[in-house]
Structures are given as C-alpha cells and as structure tokens.
Amino acid sequence: MKKTYDVEGMSCSACAAAVERICKRVDGVEHAEVNLVMNQATIESEQPIAIETYNEALQKAGFTLHEIHENKEINLQINGMSCSSCSSAVERVLNRMEGIEQANVNLLTNSAHIVYDPKVVKVSEMLHAIKKAGYEGSIPKNQEPHIETKDRVNLKIYVTLALAAVLLYIGMSHMLGNIELPLPAFIHYEKNPVNFALIQMILATLILIIGKHFFINGIRSLVHLAPNMDTLVAIGTGSAYLYSWYSFITILEGNMHGVHGLYFESAGVVVALVMFGKHLEARSKQKTYGAIQALLSLRPTTTVLLKNGEEIVIDSSEAMIGDTLLVKAGEAIPLDGVILEGESSVDESMLTGESMPLDKHAGDSLIGGTLNLTGRIQMEVTAVSEDTVLSKIIKMVEEAQGKKAPIARIADRISLYFVPTVMVIALIASISWFIAKQDMTFSLTIFVSVLVIACPCALGLATPTAIMVGTGKAAQNGIFMKSGEALETAGSIDTIVFDKTGTLTMGKPTVVAMESSDKKQLLALASAAESGSKHPLSIAIVKAAETEKLEIPKAEQVMTRNGLGVQAMYQDQPLLVGNRRLMEKQQLSTKAYTEIETQWQNKGYTVVWVAYGKAVLGLLAIADQVKEESHEVIENLLKQNIDVIMMTGDHPRSAKTIAVNIGITHVIAEVLPEGKGEEIKKLQSQGKRVAMVGDGINDAVALTQSDIGIAIGSGSDVAVESADIVLMKDKIEDVWTAVRLSRAVMRNIKQNLFWAFFYNTLGIPIAAGILYLFGGPLLNPIFAGAAMAFSSVSVVSNALRLRYFK
Fold this sequence. Notes:
Helices cover 49% and strands 21% of the residues. By secondary structure, the chain is α+β, with helices and mostly antiparallel strands. The strands form six sheets. Strands 18-30-29-28-19-26-27 form a seven-stranded mixed beta sheet, with helices on both faces. It has a six-stranded antiparallel beta sheet with strand order 10-9-11-17-12-15, with no helix packed on it. It is elongated, with a radius of gyration of 36 Å.
C-alpha cells in the first residue's frame, strides 16, 4: 500500500535524503520517496505501518511525519443560546450526527468548533440540524487563520532584516579602509569600545533567538550523525558568535584591540540573510504550485440545489450524487453530471485546451470546472469529490510533481555525502590557516565562510522545482504527465510508434468518392441495403446519404453475405452492395469499373460495388480521413531525428498509401492487437527508446510495453490507464508539444544542476582562501551568506522560466 505524509524539519536536500534513507530502513517498507519542494514523503509498504513507527526512527534525526487528514474543521456562529443547557443541547445534536468527529460549543463566544468528514456530512446539514433544535447557525465570513500566520512570518523576516542592517552598519563602520561611517560617541569603537561590543552582542543575540530553529535542528541533526543545511549555518554562525563573546570579554578586561575580533555582525547578518533567502525560496516555490492552483480555481465554491421546487444555495462540496443542480449562463459547472433540462454552449478549454465551445443538450455529459456560456440548464450530479474528472486531473498532476525523475537521484546521492564533506573541508582549511598565520580571527573567518557558502539548498531544489513547473505547464496545455520519470523519458525517446485508426486518422470512415452515371441513385440504393447495419462502412454510406439529404428507400429481405457484402430486394429487383467477388458470384459484368477500382485501391480506399437488377450501378470509395495536423506533426518529429512508425491491422497496401501521404516511410501492418506489444519489444531489442501513441483497448499492451506510453484522452479508459502521458485535447500535435516540453524541462534541470555544482565547486575554494593565498581578497562570511541565498533563489527562478514555454 502507498501513503503520503507531510514532513516537518526538512531544510535542504541532505534532509530529504536522510528522511528517505531512514524510512527505507523501517521493516516492511518497499520504497520511500521524499519531495523537498512539497515537504512530503510517499512510502510504499507491504502492510499498513503505524505513523508512530516511522516517527520513532525519524525523531533522532530531528524529523517528524504528519498524517494528511481528510477531515475538515469549521467554526459556526450559533445564535439563540442563553445558558449552558442551550450550548449542551446544540453540542449533543451535532455530536449525534454521522460524520462529525467532534463538536465543541462555546456559550461565551456563541460559536461551535466542529471536526467533520466532508464525505459523510455537509455543513448545510449541520445548519439544518441546529435550526431543528431551535437555534440559528451560520458560517462566519472570515475563517482564514493562515493569513495571520503568513503576516507573522513576514513581520519576523522584516524585523530580522532591520536588526541585521543596524548590526551591519555598526559592525562594519570601522572596516571600510579610509572611509569611516559616522557613529554616536556612546557606541563608537574607539571612544566607547565596551558599548560598541555590547550593542552588537544584543542585536546579534536577538537575531539568533529569532532564527533559533537553525540551531535546534542543526545541532540535533549533527548529534544523530545526519548533518544538513541547518547544521552548516548553526556551526558556522555559532562559532563566530561564541568567538565574539571571547573578544567581548577581553574588551571588558581592558583589551581595546578586541574590537577587531568581534564577529557578531557576521553571525547575525548571515542568519538574517539565510532566513531571508529561505523566505524568497519559499515564495518562489509557491509559484511552482501555479498549475494546481489554477486547476483548483476552476471549482466554483457554491452552487444552486433544486429540492422540492426550491432553489437552495449550498457549498459545492456538499452536493451529492443524484442531486439536481441549477447552472445559469455565465456560471461554472460545479461537478460532473448530465443535463436533465435545457441546452447551452459549454467552454471546456480550461481542461482540454480546446478553444471552441461545445453545444450540449439533454443527456449530454458535463465536466465540473468548465464554463456554461449561453443557456440555463438543470443537471444531475454523477460524480463528487475525488471521483470528478477535475479531481482526477489535479491528483494526476500532484502525483507527477511528487514523483522523482531518475536524474533527481544524482543530486540525492551527492547530498548524502556533501554536508559531512564540507564540514571536513571547513575544519581542514581553518586549521591549516591557523597553523600558517597563527591568527584565530582569520581562521574563524575561513571556517564560517566555507560552512555558509556550501549550503546544498540549490542542489536539492534543482530537479523538483523544474519538474513541478514542467508538469504544471503541461497540464495547462491539456497534457498530463503521470510522473517525473515520464517527463524525463519523453525527452530521450528516439522512436515514436503511432497507432493508425483514431490516432493519425479520424477513426470514422467516410465516403470520399463515387463513380456512376447516377450518383444520387447509387448512394440512395446503397443506403437502403446498409441502413440496418452497424458496420463502420455501412454507417459511412448511410451518413453520406443523410448529408446529401437523400430520401433513403426501404429495402426488403436484407441478408448479409459473410466476406462479400449485403444482398436485398427493392421493388422486386435484387440489390447488391459489397465487393467485386459478390458481383462476380452473381455473374454480373465488372469490366466497366475494374480500372477505377484499381486506382482507388492504390490510394488506400476501400471500394464498395453497388448493383441493381442485372447491372452494376457503380462504385463507392470509403476511407478513414487522415487528421489535418498529422502531416505537420510527423514532419516536425522527423526534423528532430525521431524515427516515426505507423502500426495498424490494415492491409499493407492500404496502410502504406496512408503512411506515404503523411510522410511516414516505416509501416508495420496486419498486426493483431495482441501482437502490438511484441512489435514494440522488437524495436526495443534494437536499442531504440520507444514511445507508443494510441487510443484503443487494443493499444493497452503496447502502451505498457513501450518506454513511454502516450494515450489520446478521448480513447478508452484502459488506454488512458496504461499510458504514462495523456493528451486531453485529442490532438496529436500535443505529442510533439510533450516531447519539446520534456526536452525543455530536462535542459532546465541540467542547467540548474550545473550551476548548483559550479557554484559550490567555485565557492568553497574561494571561501577556503584560495584567492587570498595568491594575493586576492578574502571572502567575508556575510557575502558567503548572501551568495548562498542567491544560489537557491536563482535555481528556482530558472525553473520558473518554464512557465513561458509556448
């Protein structure tokens, strides 16, 4: 079984790797995957495992898993209560309701706090129960406590930055060479060194208290041999802070030169900059959720329920299967359903990307989140909560964003050893410089700079942010990638196999040509014989007659001749519709039309002969029309050196004709459904990375066998389920779009990983004093902290560029 948990305590890729490693060690766990961006862990196990078991293993390293509860909480305003018996009565009524886990009524505030399962009980039912008990319940307008939390976080960041700015000004006032920043005499480093040190100590201490989580998490992780980003920051700034205390004590003892050994500003400003960097990173990461937020925004919050002739406004989440809802023009369809009354045009572009609205009538299906444009309709709800199309799409996108691509494992493996390696480098560098210069202040600068600049945040964010933005962008274009692995693989394929019918072609045979001295009679009589059949060719003939607005005569004694066609009687004369062999069996002359038949067959058409009485009336040519966009898509793929193959069950001559028309030279024809998977295997055995594009049940095996299965969204449920990528718009140009987007994402990930590696490869030696060794500058810990924050933000910003993919 698979379950996803929220993870508390992670701050970098080393943390994510540690959580993953610890969870995998728990007995019964088959697989564990941690997403740093979403702060979630997905764990697969043979049997259900209690969350306490995971937390027992994780707590030593400073991490905690939390259940993702499906229960909701709400506060209701209760009017009409006058004493404790009133509040008890309301509480008793609510607690008796199925689906309410807990209800607490507060007489003082006239409110009820309720924990409930939205699948079982609706808020409107609670309000109704309260009303039946003799009281009035209502939903308070503002129930958004998260805003306060967000404001508090912002305030903390701004206060920290303000304190850091003052601390930096004071601490650096005497370090700018010939320029000296003005300071009041009572805190001047020469006139009053004790106050100069004291004010810095107070400011730095305040900043470190605000950022105490770095020290709590960092030291705890170090004690349990799982060092992370917090560990680097805690040890680096903590060392600077403690050494500054030593210098402060020497100043109190009369050593005025101790002011040059104060590193309070480094400790305080670095913590402030790291906090600010994490804040910017978090804000940038929020933008990567844009696709899911856009999908969620499609859901209308309220809808109109029709019950006993009344129109009742309810929360959309409260509607149930079978409910009748009223949707007016201009409103969003609240849930999946079917039209009971009325007709309208519906815009489904927000889900499918299809720009043209669709006309809907009674009996037609509706998708929740789409827009009712013109008419007032009544609909019956057929799916709620996670069963709606929109919910399934959102879940698909979320799961894709939560699953790692293979390339992400490179960063994970490096992160495991990165932090301990950096700590060793920092220690060796600082000791070496101390031995060389006998200067503790200089040595400490090296130690702090190396630890702070080497934070692996950028490394951990390089892959998941790009995958989140990429899968989100794909979803906005009606392309749903089921995993990060699918996204990565799609960019590396070198062969695409297309199913013919319904993928490259319309999947609906149509009459494309007629040959006869009286074409209307030819089509009318052919339709008379075929009107009762469900065969695709029969349907095509009848539809052609209806399009021409011909009156279809009624044939009698209609009889199917297997492998030949249809035989019937019309006005006491025999009527034959079928192939040439049927004509020859009735000893009718076919010479007049044999050459036309050959020409049409060479074009890939299916030829139908029609005879009436004792003579052949003429021929009908039927073909499955190629989709307009097929030729351009094939051309684009071939330009990118992708080998394109068409696979079909059709006769080789017919298949070859269609393939040549759209630019495909490699055809696999006369393939039975069960043989499609074997054909894919053959291609893979030649070392090819194969994508299969199909839409039918008969494509499911091939979709599963291929390296990447791409299903047309309008196809069968089995095909959609078997595929790695689903094209909702039913347009094969999205195959090309999916490949291009995948390549863009992989290019972005490689850029991110390159710059993350490059940054650390370059930054660590500079921080360790390599430039200073050859007469260059020494890196100040403050600049190291700023550079570290900048690296994380730049990686996320680079990933966000994918939002502008066209």
